[in-house]
Amino acid sequence: MTFGPKQPERVLFWIASASALVALVALLRPPAETLLWKALFDAGHAVVSGYLGLVFLRLIQAWTGGYPPLRASLWAFVITMACGLGIEIVQIVLPRDANLGDLMRNGLGAAGMLSAEWACARDAGGRLVRQRWVRNGLLGGAIVLYLIAFAPVGAIVWAYTQRDAAFPRLCDFDARWETYFVEMWKADLERTPRPAGWGSGQAQDKAGLVTFRGGDYPRYVLKEPVRDWSHHRELVFEVFSQIGTPVEIVLRIDDAVHNQEYDDRFNRPLMVSPGANLFRIPLADVRRTPRGREMDLTHIARIVIFTVEPPQPLSLFFDALRLE
Question: Does the reported pTM lie above 0.85?
């Protein structure tokens, strides 16, 4: 018995297709660093892996010339997942982040596509060989798997819709959608009731208790706020401190073309006194701050509140970030 491909031309074609897809998954990056693009790119793993599973299935069929369809599909799934795992391992040493979530999406896509293909398999005469209820069940299951893979995209779109509807409120820690736009670095965030004695807020109102843990520039980041601030005059937010002495925080604002240099953004130290503090930042000051240019108030990218190497953990309550 000889070992070799039954259909060598097809084997070469499908090997080339598989290699191109593996390279695509390993090297392609999102065109923009936004939440929506990242979600779309992540969900795209399911689409690419589904097609890759189909390529491996065709490769197995071309090599063997007649492997049982179910067994070929299972082998195609195993090989696809092995490739996905290999890509994640390679990304550990590349300037990319290995992600078990990508591996899960690979599995969803491959399982969905291979299930749909097996449901629609035909015999040599071109007739479907699965009973209708089997086909419908498998096709329905494939749709569910892809819906699961793309669910984060829907969640991000919902969060953008809620963000836009809330504007000019930027963040008051009362709504679930806000969590999509918050990022912490060496700091912790807890949504908690406003402390007694802080303003006239209702009992159910929440505040953000930010604990700056220490180290280099622990920070709270509000990313991707509504971009256009050009029709407003001030950025306003409240801070409440239960610390007995004044402490300093720094407010930073970046626009979309910020070049990561210190003098190309807005930076302002703010002294937080014990008790309630209300800060009003004129947007005219924000516009004038970058050296050699004006801040683009129609394309604001992020707000950062940080401390400079606190010697010990520092906890402050934040609330009602808004434009006026």
Answer: no
